[in-house]
Amino acid sequence: MTIILIAIAYLTYAAFWVRLSLHAVVWLRAVRQHATGPSAAPGKPLHASAMTLIDLLLFRRLFASNKPLWLGSWAFHTAFFIVILRHLRYFLEPVPDCIVQVQPFGVFAGYVMAFSLAYVIFLRTVTKTKYVSYQNYIILGLVFLISATGLVMRNYFPPDLVDVKSFVMGLVAMRPAPLPAGFFFSLHFFLVLLLVPFLPFHLFTAPFVAFEARKREFRLDKVMHDR
Amino acid sequence: MTGNGEKKKAAPDDRSFTKELSPLQLIEIDACTQCGECLKYCPVQDVTGNPLISPPEKIRVFREFIKATDGLKARLLGPQHIDRKLLEDFTKAVYECTTCGACGQHCTVGIFTQRLWPMLRKEMVRRGLGPIGPQVNLPKVIGETGNPYNRPAAERFAPWFPEHVKVVDRADIAYYAGCTGAYEATPMVRGDVLVLGAIGEPFTMLPAEDEVCCGFPLFITGQHDMLEDLVSRLVAAYQAKGVKTLLCSCPCCVNIMSRDWPLFYKKELPFRIRHITQFVADAMKNRKLTIRKELRQRLIYHDPCYLSRGVGIMEEPRAVLRGIPGAELLEFDRNRLESRCCGAGGAARKIFSENAIEMGRLTIAEAVEKKADKLVLSCPACYAKVNEAMVGYDKQIEIVDIMELVAKMIEAVDSGTP
Q1: Does 1.20.950.20 match the CATH number of domain A2-23+44-223?
Q2: What's this model's pTM, rounded to 2 decimal places?
Q3: Are B125 and B91 in contact (CB under 8 A)?
């Protein structure tokens, strides 16, 4: 079991980088093809950066469009981020103080994550949204199961944390250690590996697009008013 | 679906779907979260309710196309086969869009769809799948007649141009009527010229045979081959007349002139582009134009997509309307950057005419519901299509172009009408 899961982990890791590289190749090839033409009127990059940060931290655009969905989506993404911070304790030695401080919040965020996901899935189902992305439902379902198994471990079947840390550190250092005992840890870990191929690319590209959208908004008034 | 009459076969090493897209557009395609929020604002969805032609679905399908030609499997084993029906359905979906950009305005990420859709069309043209219907003939027709309506240059100005308005040979200011205004919305361009005449600043125009298409119909249907030539001819002609400001009332013309002409001209334009409402609002502010006659009516102004979301002209038309004594200005629920397309955009109105009529009727219905006396437009395509939409519709309202209205108010004073 240990060997299989470790092999899957490395394969998933490699596949993720191949996928990312292929996207990068497509973007870079386009850069070569479209490198001409006069530049657009300058925006306000600093102002745009500050506003983009607010857009990204508060999901402003979603708030403007759909407030009930915003509530669930913002709570989920924020909680997910805090949960990831909490999990960094398994990847770092010594554990930085800031990660230690975040631990209690991480537990709370785990509950928020599960409940906000259930809320989002419920909302999408009952409001009969016009457009259904099945891939989004797969991702939502997977993340829900990951958070649920995490909470089950936290409350009912806690794994040996020393074993967990040595397993994770071993994976990172390419010196695999034995898989910690417990069905729920294996399931939790497997579901995370299953999630990686489904990771939506907007996680990496949306911040850049949001920044460009802000710059475009600032420039709009200049298209026909200043030049 | 009809395809391009002269289909160009893609070279085997030229199969990538990314050729016509900028790096940012490719990143935008990756950034779509598929949340579906944009469907609430899509005018095509309002009238068709078909999610298969919705913005996220088009992006999802296009991702699959990119994957088939640039994904890992394609790189290892060569480009994958894409079902012809899927390609044709996708092409129809991108051409059924009005390219109004409302989806991008409300996009939870901020994708610039008003620019993305035309570039996807360009890719489909490159592959010999687009454009569709009579759009195929645009390059030929524009090449022969200088306009997309296949009408002679002799009819461009003569039927509507007011005799008493003087056009000088050379001036700092030039007026470009545009093909849709000149051939399909003549009260609008007549109004433009009457108002310019009333302001009194000398202005020039190109002869009818030289005032050729601005290129927008070709740009928006993805047929870019002639654009450099058209733009160079027009820019050179205005430059020869010593023009420093080029005025135009058509949002589509103004959009391509300010956003894309510099790209096709390959440098900054030697003159600035101004929408007619900017010029008239300035003239009213500087008291070069005053409207004295009262109009005790409720006016509702519709923001054309390519004027508001396209180039940010939203307050000047309102300033002009507020300058009419007695007039009360109403707003659509969705106004300015969030305006709803009237159905005339994206060169789709003649192919998907029923959609366009339905969208136009939604605009009329809201204007009637708000108890407006006049629906004020400032786009020749909107003008032509919304007027068409009112034929046989149980809700009726007076439709007027903004400059047509201003011209009427001025004429009323000039002729001594109280």
Answers
A1: yes
A2: 0.93
A3: no
